[in-house]
Design goal:
Elements lengths: L1 H15 L2 H11 L5 H29 L13 H22 L10 H6 L5 H10 L5 H16 L4 H15 L1 H12 L4 H40 L1
Helix pairs in contact: 1-7, 1-8, 2-3, 2-9, 2-10, 3-6, 3-7, 3-8, 3-9, 4-7, 4-10, 7-8, 9-10
């Protein structure tokens, strides 16, 4: 279990460190009416789509030979391909942010402006559909699934590991909810500060995270093809 979690740690960290999804969660929690319900609904929607992705693509990978490991590289062709694609996508994202080009993973500005006015049901829908339109989140999740299938664990263990991946990948979304629950009076000030910091530093965070993980994944993927 510890070994597979270590293998999944880059995808967990990469999935968690996406500033836009955290900013949206905080904006929903700061809503004057039903803020907590909206934040919970948003995270619930993201959990639902990730569970659905795991159910569908876990079966696809298992039945398509994703677990067939290349003896020389120690990882399957599916994992190697996904890691390489993820590395390229992250490096492109770093360049786009550095050159101030539009990032396809960034939601339209009107989404951020309207987040506080959403109903809990619409917040649920936002959480459900947001991962579907963010290419990097797709590849993080698919790469994690391929690694889990590649480990050839028992089915209950596979499910448990994937649930842990979801929990840890969404840890920075759950943290503001816990802050709101544990410090209802002070949470507004804390969340305001976090949201402002993330908004100011969004570009730098994306560049650094995308560059570091992009180079890491590209190196690992190319190594898998060449070895």
């Amino acid at each position: 279990m510890e070994t597979i979690l270590i293998s999944l740690s880059p995808y967990i960290i990469g999935s968690a460190l996406v500033p836009v999804q955290i900013i949206l969660a905080i904006l929903l929690l700061q809503s004057p009416r039903q803020g907590l319900a909206k934040g919970i609904a948003y995270v619930t929607g993201m959990t639902m789509i990730r569970l659905l992705q795991g159910l569908v693509f876990g079966q696809v990978f298992a039945s398509s030979g994703a677990a067939e490991v290349d003896g020389s590289s120690g990882q399957s062709l599916v994992v190697t391909t996904l890691i390489t694609v993820l590395g390229i996508l992250l490096l492109i994202a770093a360049y786009k942010k550095w050159s101030r080009e539009e990032d396809p993973d960034d939601p339209p500005p009107k989404w951020l402006a309207a987040a506080g006015n959403l109903t809990p049901l619409k917040a649920l829908a936002l959480g459900f559909f947001l991962p579907l339109i963010m290419p990097k989140l797709w590849v993080f999740t698919l790469s994690a699934l391929a690694v889990i299938v590649n480990a050839e664990l028992e089915q209950p263990t596979n499910a448990l590991v994937y649930l842990l991946f979801i929990l840890l990948a969404q840890s920075l979304l759950l943290l503001p909810i816990f802050i709101r629950l544990l410090m209802p009076k002070r949470s507004q000030l804390v969340l305001d500060g976090v949201s402002s910091w993330l908004t100011r530093n969004n570009r730098v965070i994306v560049i650094v995270v995308s560059l570091v993980f992009g180079l890491l994944f590209l190196y690992s993927g190319l190594k898998g093809f060449l070895v």
